[in-house]
């Protein structure tokens, strides 16, 4: 018999959904009895711990895609000389080590317009995702929200103009499944950026009414928690966004679940150092220090698997532990 491969994308978005995890276990249990059927799945390393039982029970091989090293960057810069002046810039270190961002940066003729990750993500949103056309904002947001809230592979093309969908597909913004006639954004990072823009707008519209802000987010269902954490992680990079978003969220009274999600997003971020340094005294005065320590011990790690011998190694996720 011919081999059959089933690909499951972005497992991290069901990491806290007990029902979906049970269904995943049932799928693996059924497939282990069929020799010619295999499963390939993708998952962000920060969420891999949620699937440790599954990995151990079914002897799953874990392949980790590492970030680009400094030596590799030096080799790449010989082919893209425009990268050489910025390789030593601190603002770019986190960007250049990620293949997706590196690819997009090499396509920008004027690198002065993207001084940090927030600038780059805004550039990608306006110029690469929305193609400089504000009419596409609602279309793209609708596709992303529909797909995420309903746990679907995509959103039906029948909900949108054919000419708009064709334009977005031809510009590598969307991809379409020919069988289901559904479309989704081509890259997961594009979806992250779309959610970031969506949550930004909800935050600004709330005008400091955090109960209203979180009520709006809760309409998206459980998928919003991980998206919200990613949003928090990215707000830590620049001081301007740390002051605008995080200071008010951390040091104000929030619903308990959202307070927890905010703090988890901070400790899992690679950019949390400055936040803790800037707010050290305030965290101690408001008795939040040990709360962050507790959450760091629970969530501030990921699992690295070793096959020879088979074991699990805990490693830090984000910079929460170092801080």
Give a quick precis of the structure:
With 323 residues, the chain is mainly α.
Would you mind describing this structure in some detail?
With 323 residues, the chain is mainly α. It has 16 helices and seven strands. The strands form three sheets. Strands 3-5-4 form a three-stranded antiparallel sheet. The protein has a two-stranded parallel ribbon with strand order 1-2. Strand 1, helix 1 and strand 2 form a beta-alpha-beta unit. Helix 9 packs antiparallel against helix 10. The radius of gyration is 21 Å and the shape is globular. The chain starts with a strand and ends in a 7-residue tail after the last strand. The model has no long low-confidence stretch (mean pLDDT 85).
H/E series: EHEHHHHHHEHEEHHHHHHHHEE
The secondary-structure class comes to mainly alpha
Largest sheet: 3 strands, antiparallel
- Number of H/I helices: 16
Low-confidence spans: pLDDT under 50, at least 5 residues? none
Number of strands: 7
Give, in spatial order, the strands making up the sheet with the most strands: 3-5-4
Helix content: 40-55%
What proportion of the residues form beta strands (DSSP E)?
5-15%
Whole-number radius of gyration?
21 Å
């Amino acid at each position: 018999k011919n081999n059959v491969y089933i690909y499951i994308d972005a497992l991290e978005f069901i990491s806290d959904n007990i029902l979906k995890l049970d269904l995943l276990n049932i799928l693996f249990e059924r497939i282990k009895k069929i020799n010619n059927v295999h499963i390939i799945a993708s998952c962000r390393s920060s969420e891999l711990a949620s699937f440790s039982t599954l990995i151990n029970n079914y002897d799953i091989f874990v392949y980790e895609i590492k970030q680009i090293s400094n030596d590799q960057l030096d080799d790449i810069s010989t082919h893209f000389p425009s990268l050489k002046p910025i390789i030593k810039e601190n603002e770019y270190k986190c960007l250049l080590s990620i293949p997706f961002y590196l690819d997009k940066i090499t396509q920008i003729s004027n690198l002065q317009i993207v001084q940090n990750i927030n600038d780059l993500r805004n550039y990608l949103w306006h110029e690469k995702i929305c193609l400089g056309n504000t009419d596409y904002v609602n279309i793209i947001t609708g596709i992303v929200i529909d797909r995420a809230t309903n746990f679907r592979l995509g959103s039906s093309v029948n909900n949108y103009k054919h000419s708009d969908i064709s334009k977005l597909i031809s510009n590598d913004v969307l991809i379409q499944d020919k069988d289901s006639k559904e479309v989704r954004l081509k890259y997961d990072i594009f979806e992250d950026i779309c959610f970031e823009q969506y949550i930004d707008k909800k935050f600004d519209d709330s005008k400091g009414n955090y109960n209203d802000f979180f009520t709006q987010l809760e309409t998206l269902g459980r998928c919003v928690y991980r998206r919200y954490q990613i949003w928090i992680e990215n707000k830590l990079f620049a001081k301007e966004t740390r002051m605008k978003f995080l200071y008010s969220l951390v040091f104000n009274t929030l619903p308990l679940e959202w307070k927890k999600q905010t703090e988890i997003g901070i400790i899992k971020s690679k950019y949390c150092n400055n936040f803790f340094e800037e707010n050290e005294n305030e965290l101690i005065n408001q008795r939040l220090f040990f709360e962050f320590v507790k959450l760091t011990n629970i969530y501030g790690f990921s699992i690295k698997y070793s096959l020879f011998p088979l074991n699990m190694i805990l490693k830090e996720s984000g910079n929460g532990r170092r801080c």
